[in-house]
């Protein structure tokens, strides 16, 4: 919750004698239980043309959180022809070009900022292990976890240098679109760490602000309530300065004890 308040405060001018964390802690001390719970949920599916929205807290001056798709550009269904159709993540990965990856993230982040969003729901970085996966074009890793590790950090920096929070997705083992809401991905520990976690490590090292957990199960447990993989994310991999949101409709229980921080609506 402290991280979510810190994120919200990013849109407010910093008071000279207090750090953002100190201001967030002061706000938390003033928040009611209802106000705290409010920040743990997306309030509507679509609000003011954003895919995700958490309303502002007017009493304490905490601005709204506006989240929008996607990995290849700003989703805008109300204003056709107003969004740049950027190259796909797989296309960028195919260049093996770190500078281009940064410029791609920078340009998209700039467009998102100009349209009022403060969370960019991307980049996607799942390793392309299934050739017929319908969403592999979104992912900036290609078929090589080291390539993903090497490139996604530049994408994240490019986005976040524009004042937009990037979102590393989809955590984790979300490597096929068919039956994505029911499939159970069985992965041993070594494969998990050497292949599937690797691109996400690059995002963490770049300071990514948020993660999105996926629809699938992992070794029998839903990704958004999987204490093992979420524990690895926040423990072994060291993701401590951001928050984990669910994909839309990917929660099956109250999962805060397993490591989920924010639930998005179905």
Describe it for me?
Helix 1 (2-9) crosses helix 2 and helix 5 (98-114) packs parallel to helix 6. This protein has helices at 2-9, 20-30, 33-38, 89-93, 98-114, 145-160, 189-196, 198-205, 227-234, and strands at residues 52-54, 65-68, 119-120, 165-171, 184-185, 210-213, 217-218, 221-222, 243-246. It has 266 residues and is of the alpha/beta class. The protein is globular and about 50 Å long.
Summarize the structure.
This protein has 266 residues and is α/β, with parallel strands linked by helices. It has 9 helices and 9 strands.
- Tally of helical segments: 9
Radius of gyration: 18 Å
What is the global morphology? globular
* Strand content bin: 5-15%
Biggest sheet, in brief? 6 strands, mixed
Mean pLDDT: 91
Distance between the termini: 21 Å
Oligomer: single chain
Number of strands: 9
Q: State the helicity in percent bands.
A: 25-40%
Strand order of the largest sheet: 1-2-3-4-6-9
> By helix and strand content, what is the structural category?
alpha/beta
Order of H and E elements: HHHEEHHEHEEHHEEEHE
Detail the poorly predicted runs.
Answer: 11-15
């Amino acid at each position: 919750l402290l991280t979510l308040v810190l994120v919200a405060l990013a849109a407010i001018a910093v008071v000279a004698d207090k750090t953002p964390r100190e201001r967030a802690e002061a706000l938390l001390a003033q928040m009611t239980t209802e106000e705290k719970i409010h920040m743990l949920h997306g309030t509507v599916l679509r609000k003011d043309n954003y895919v995700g929205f958490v309303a502002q807290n007017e009493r304490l001056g905490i601005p709204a959180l506006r989240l929008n798709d996607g990995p290849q550009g700003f989703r805008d269904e109300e204003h056709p022809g107003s969004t740049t159709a950027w190259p796909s993540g797989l296309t960028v990965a195919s260049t093996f070009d770190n500078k281009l990856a940064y410029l791609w993230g920078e340009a998209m982040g700039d467009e998102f900022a100009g349209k009022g969003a403060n969370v960019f729901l991307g980049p996607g970085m799942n390793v392309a292990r299934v050739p017929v996966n319908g969403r592999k074009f979104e992912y900036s890793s290609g078929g090589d976890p080291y390539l993903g590790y090497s490139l996604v950090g530049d994408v994240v920096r490019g986005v976040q240098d524009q004042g937009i929070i990037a979102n590393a997705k989809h955590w984790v083992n979300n490597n096929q679109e068919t039956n994505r809401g029911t499939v159970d991905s069985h992965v041993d520990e070594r494969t998990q760490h050497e292949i599937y976690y690797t691109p996400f490590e690059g995002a963490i090292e770049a300071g990514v602000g948020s993660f999105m957990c996926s629809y699938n199960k992992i070794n029998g447990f839903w990704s958004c309530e999987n204490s093992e993989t979420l524990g690895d994310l926040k423990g072994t991999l060291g993701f401590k300065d951001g928050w984990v949101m669910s994909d839309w409709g990917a929660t099956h229980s109250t999962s805060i004890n397993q490591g989920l921080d924010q639930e998005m609506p179905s």
